[in-house]
Amino acid sequence: MTQSDSSAPGTGRETPHLLRVGLVGCGYQGNALATAVGRTTTLHLVACADPDQEAAARVAALAHDVKPFSSVEALLDDASVDAVLVATPHHLLCPVSLTAMRAGKHVLAEKPIGLNEQEAATIGEEAGRRGVRYMAGYSCRFSLARHVHDLLAAGTVGDIQAVTGVFGCGPLNDGWLASAETGGGSLLYLGSHLVDMLLWFIDDRPVEVSGSIRRRADTKVDDTSPFQIRFSRGMVAQCLVTQAASTFFFMVDIHGRAGRVTLRGWGFLQFEIEVSSTVNAPFTQPTVIRPQIEDDNITMMLVPELEEFARAIAEEREPSITATDGRRVLQVLDGVVASDRHGARVSID
Ligand SMILES: NC(=O)c1ccc[n+]([C@@H]2O[C@H](COP(=O)([O-])OP(=O)(O)OC[C@H]3O[C@@H](n4cnc5c(N)ncnc54)[C@H](O)[C@@H]3O)[C@@H](O)[C@H]2O)c1
Of 152, 242, 309, 317, which has fewest CB within 10 angstroms of its CB? Predict the structure, then answer.
């Protein structure tokens, strides 16, 4: 059994089995994940790790009896955990996940799960070898992308013919996001979200990528990247990812012969979806949907993501977002980099 038995035998007040988790990486997203764990009914935070001891202490203070550590190795040596949540800078997502899986732990790791397809492949192989569950943390699938996915699954646009997708943010000037060695730049940070959404929405496999990358003169990481993905049945997605915007924003515009769905947003809580359809009756006139916002993005996106992770472990099945999904995203992003380098289209079939 991989989950702790926190029942109280004989008291008549059996509590549910809780998945004991350790969090590695206690920055922005680590704080959000730790807060989300506290709002679930199936996970329990028992330890956290960060070389920045103040960051670890801040996360430890979010719940009772959370032990702070300075590394994933120290956490795994000292704390009894069933699973590890990984929210480190991009260059550490893969090595930390491998360390945790080699210790027999289930892993949920943040997007983009690694620096490239090769790392993602290693992760998938290790999860298979160790018999543990691995989930890729593409949290948008539990919120804004889910609404679009539901509309597409209802046949709102018919077969998708063409897509335009844009993700942007303000300049990534500091820290690991401003260095290529640590996986900085907007392609991995935001482009991963965009490509994951497109691959989830489009029921076809990408076969070719072409693109170009304008790099920042100072940090040398990618600044603005226009790229195109061609799918096996001829569908084309035209994409743009940039850190040269004034603020965070996104737009995904999906066209089919029967309709159009456009997702636009300015934050994980500020978004709307415009729908028009000749076959989905409520949308015969263009209609703007503003889904109901629950509390904050932690409740909307991360709580259902964590609950799904815990359910997959309890039910001994693959989580809804796998290492293979993460690998497919990185295959496309690797294709953009290769296309820019060679000045040519790149086959990724
Ligand atoms: N799903 C989402 O919506 C979402 C949103 C933001 C960030 N993210 C992802 O979360 C991850 C972290 O991003 P962030 O914004 O929290 O970054 P951050 O810089 O705020 O936090 C990273 C933390 O990792 C720590 N760290 C560095 N080396 C470490 C090591 N060896 N072991 C343990 N911890 C270490 C740093 O000290 C820092 O506290 C990235 O993969 C990012 O793409 C996801």
Answer: 317
